[in-house]
């Protein structure tokens, strides 16, 4: 269930222009699955780790996208750097809507500036995946580094990816 891009832009504009309004994320435990994507009790995207240690496809995809787009500033495995915060800690405070708003709309916090990624399809098309991966890192459900085992990519993922990338 990928969210349409206009929804992201609206969330980003609202959150970038106002103080933090949302509540902290809830328990990351998956309570619902839809087309290979997992959701918590609040309906936010979350991770699922199989009995064999395999991560769900979206967490694996988030790992790939994080290391393609985010790790240069935020450090390997969400650990932060001298000029950008540790995202694996930030997702403990930011719920999905806040996270999406910051990624899409950018944010300035003192001298620290997070650029807007609204035009970066490698981030926007995979925003759920990024959030899922960082949530899994933040709880220790996945360890730093490339997950050893993963579920196969669901057809719904492939379809959503193709649709988002051609826009």
UniProtKB/TrEMBL annotation:
<keyword id="KW-0732">Signal</keyword>
<dbReference type="Pfam" id="PF13442">
    <property type="entry name" value="Cytochrome_CBB3"/>
</dbReference>
<keyword id="KW-0408">Iron</keyword>
<dbReference type="GO" id="GO:0009055">
    <property type="term" value="F:electron transfer activity"/>
</dbReference>
<feature type="domain" description="Cytochrome c">
    <location>
        <begin position="51"/>
        <end position="138"/>
    </location>
</feature>
<protein>
    <submittedName>
        <fullName>C-type cytochrome, methanol metabolism-related</fullName>
    </submittedName>
</protein>
<keyword id="KW-0349">Heme</keyword>
<feature type="signal peptide">
    <location>
        <begin position="1"/>
        <end position="22"/>
    </location>
</feature>
<dbReference type="GO" id="GO:0046872">
    <property type="term" value="F:metal ion binding"/>
</dbReference>
<keyword id="KW-0479">Metal-binding</keyword>
<dbReference type="InterPro" id="IPR009056">
    <property type="entry name" value="Cyt_c-like_dom"/>
</dbReference>
<dbReference type="GO" id="GO:0020037">
    <property type="term" value="F:heme binding"/>
</dbReference>
<dbReference type="InterPro" id="IPR036909">
    <property type="entry name" value="Cyt_c-like_dom_sf"/>
</dbReference>
<dbReference type="InterPro" id="IPR022411">
    <property type="entry name" value="C-typ_cyt_methanol_metab-rel"/>
</dbReference>
């Amino acid at each position: 269930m990928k969210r349409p891009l206009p929804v992201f832009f609206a969330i980003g504009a609202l959150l970038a222009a106002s103080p933090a309004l949302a509540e902290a994320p809830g328990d990351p435990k998956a309570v619902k699955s839809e087309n290979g994507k997992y959701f918590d009790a609040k309906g936010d995207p979350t991770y699922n780790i199989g009995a064999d240690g395999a991560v769900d496809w979206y967490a694996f995809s988030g790992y790939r996208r994080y290391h393609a787009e985010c790790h240069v500033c935020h450090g390997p495995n969400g650990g932060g750097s001298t000029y950008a915060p540790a995202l694996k800690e930030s997702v403990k405070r930011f719920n999905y809507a806040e996270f999406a708003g910051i990624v899409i709309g950018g944010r300035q916090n003192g001298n620290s500036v997070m650029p807007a990624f609204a035009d970066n399809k490698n981030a926007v098309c995979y925003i759920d995946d990024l959030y899922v991966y960082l949530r899994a890192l933040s709880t220790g459900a996945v360890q730093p580094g490339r997950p050893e085992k993963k579920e196969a990519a669901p057809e719904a993922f492939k379809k959503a990816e193709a649709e988002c990338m051609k826009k």
